[in-house]
Design goal:
This protein is of the alpha+beta class and 254 residues long. The protein contains seven helices and 15 strands. Strands 1, 2, 3, 4, 7, 10, 11, 12, 13, 14 and 15 form an eleven-stranded mixed beta sheet that branches. A two-stranded antiparallel sheet has the order 5-6. A two-stranded antiparallel sheet has the order 8-9.
Length: 254
Amino acid sequence: MNGANPAHRGTGAPRTFDPWDGVLLVDKPGGMTSHDVVAAIRRRFRIKKVGHGGTLDPMATGLLVILTGKGTKLSNIVMGSDKTYEGAMTMGIATTTQDAEGDTTAERPFAGVTEAAVRERFGAWTGDVMQTPPMVSAIKKDGVPLYKMARKGKEVEREPRLIHVYDFSLLTFTPPDVTFRLTCTKGTYVRTLCADIGEELGCGAHLSALRRTRSGSFDLKDAVTLDELLDGTEGDLYRRILPMHTVTAYQPGG
């Protein structure tokens, strides 16, 4: 295994670089939290330090940047990078979570919504924009995560936050579904964009699918599926880790 043995990490003279310290690109499946993926890798390969460089909601799939060993020190840098997604917005239905996992709060007709109207709204949300975070989020208010308040039926005022949307392109228009490609800064809630656009169109909408294809300069095409990773050997894992000293693609914005 290229002379490396994870069982002996941390023994002997300290080294400034260890080949197990770095970045691992994983294609996250739907139905799992980012923490679930981290925990599965930690258990399977007995790695003490494992983290990620930007969470994906359970419903979402795609590129999850996993950080191993001293690579976890890159967390803030990787989290700060721009992201690209491909997703689907379903018009006519608003939900409690602004995505397909929530309960329906309203159903409204969407037949009058045109492709041109959707394109115009996507364009209006391009550039520097202020976005109000959703209640179902990990943002804290007085030390309490908003999602915990939301579970109790509470809603509190949230301060709008500045985000930047580089590109918001309509891919297909097949009502009630609209597919899109989005490139944006960190901290952007894609489901909130869909919900806000749905309100502006007068029909309501929610995020019905989301796949992250890029994080900074890391690309989904270079990722391994979680199943393939967990079915592999420690040697397979070793060969997939991008060592810290060779990773030059984790700067924000790529």
